[in-house]
Amino acid sequence: MGVGWSSYHIQCESSEPANDSILPPGVVLESNPRDVSDKEAKQDSAVDYSALPCPVRYEELMRESMMSLKPDVFEGFRFDFTKPLNNNFAVTHSCFMGNIDVPTNNQQSIKMPMGTYEFGANLVNNKAMMIGRILNDGRLTGRIKYDINDNIAVKLQTQLTQEKGYSQMMLDFDLKGKDWNGQLKLGNTAFYGVNYLQSVTPTLALGGEAFWLGQQRRSGVGFAFRKATDKYVATGQLATTGLLSLTYSHKVSDKVTLASDFMWNWNAREATASCGYDCFFRQSRLRGKVDTNGVVSAYLEERLNQTVQLLLSAEIDHSKKDYKFGFGMTIGE
Q1: Neighbours of 248 (CB within 10 A)
Q2: What CATH number has the domain spanning 53-331?
Q3: What subcellular locations does the record give (predicted)?
Q4: How many H-runs (helices) and E-runs (strands) does the chain carry?
Q5: pLDDT digits (tens, 9 = 90+) for 231-241
Q6: 247 contact partners, CB below 8 Å, separation of at least 6
Q7: Least confident among 22-31, 229-238, 317-326
Q8: Strand 152-160, strand 140-147: pairing
Q9: Under a CB-based contact definition with an 8 Å cutoff, are residues 296 and 290 in contact?
Q10: Handedness of CA 178, 207, 213, 270 (dihedral sign)
Q11: Which of 168, 175, 209, 312 is deepest in the core (most CB within 10 A)?
Q12: For the segment 259-311, what is each residue's pLDDT rounded down to a tens digit?
C-alpha cells in the first residue's frame, strides 16, 4: 500500500521500533485518509443480492445483437399502411410483390414470383393486446396477450390454414418475479416447454430451457447466460440438440452499435460467424451484416416525414452468386 510522507508523524522523543518494522526509529505510520475512504466506498458498493434487477425474458436473450444481425431483408416491393381509428384500435393493409426462395433437394433454392395482400387489425390497451392478420390465400394468424397482473401474463398465438395438419397454436404463460423471468409453453402438436432466467449479479443472468415434442418423441435441454452492462451485452446458449450460440453487442455511442455472433452445430459439423452494425441518424436507420458464408446485407429505413418511411433492402450471396434487392414504403403511425 503506497503511503505519502505526509502521513508520517515524527515523534520528538525516542521510542523502540516495532518488530519487523521497515521504518526508522521515531517514525509511526498513521492511517491514510484516502485508503480509509476507498475502503468505505467498497463497502458501500457491495452487491445487495436481495435487490437484483429483473432480467429479460428467455426468448429475448439475444435481442440487442439480433437487431443488428437479423434485419428484415426482402426482395421485391413492399407497401404497409396503418390507419388508427382511435387510441386503441387500428387497421393495416400490406402488399408484397416479389420473389420467394423455394428450397430443392440439392440444397439449392429457386425463385418463384408471388404477390400477396394482407389485412390486419390491432387492438391495444393497458392490459391486453390483440393482433390479427389474414392473407388473400386464406391463412389467418393471430396473437393475443393479456396481463393478469404485474407478474403474470398469458399469450396465445395461432396460425390457421386451409391445408390439413399445418394449423398451429401456442399458449404461453409468462411469469415474472423480482429478479427472475419464467415461461411455460403448450402447443397443439403435443409440445411442452419451460424456460427460466435468474439474475445472479446486477449484470449477469443464468438460465435454462427444456422442451418435449410428443408427436416426434424428441426432447431437448439448453443452458444460457447473459452479461449486460451499459456498454455491451454478451450471451451464450448451449443445447443438447447440438447447437452452440455466442453473441456480443457493443454500444460504441448513442447512435452506433456493433454486434457479432458465432453458431456451431456439432452434429452437422458446421459453423458460421457474422458481424454487423446498427446506426441511427437524424431521420434514418441503417443496419447491415457480413457472414462467413459470403452473404452481405444492408437495410435502410429513411423517414421522409412523421408518417412516411422509405425502405431499401439489399443482400448479396457471393458463394451462391445470388442477390436480392427490395424497396418499400410504410405509411402510418
Answers
A1: 19
A2: 2.40.160.10
A3: Mitochondrion outer membrane
A4: 2, 21
A5: 999 999 999 99
A6: 62, 65, 66, 69, 233, 234, 235, 236, 259, 260, 261, 262
A7: 22-31
A8: antiparallel
A9: yes
A10: positive
A11: 209
A12: 999 999 999 999 999 999 999 999 999 999 999 999 999 999 999 999 999 99
| DSSP assignment string, 254-305 | SSEEEEEEEEEETTTTEEEEEEEEEEE-SSEEEEEEEETTSEEEEEEEEE-S
- What are the extents of the domains in the chain? 5-44, 53-331
Burial state string for 220-232 with b = 16 or more CB within 10 A and e = fewer than 16: eebebbbebeeeb
Identity of the residue numbered 175: L
Which residue is it, cell 390465400? 137
Give the residues across from 284 on adjacent strands: 302
Between CA 63 and CA 74, with CA 69 as vertex, the angle to 5 degrees is 110
- Rounded to whole angstroms, the Cα distance separating 78 from 289 reads 22
The cell numbers describing 46, all together, are 457491495
Q: What does the pLDDT look like over 121-166, one tens digit per residue? A: 999 999 999 999 999 999 999 999 999 999 999 999 999 998 888 8
Stretch 3-25: mean pLDDT: 43
CA–CA dist 13, 63 (Å, integer): 70
Q: What pLDDT, on a 0 to 100 scale, did the predictor assign at position 100?
A: 83
Q: What grid cell was written down for 294?
A: 459470403
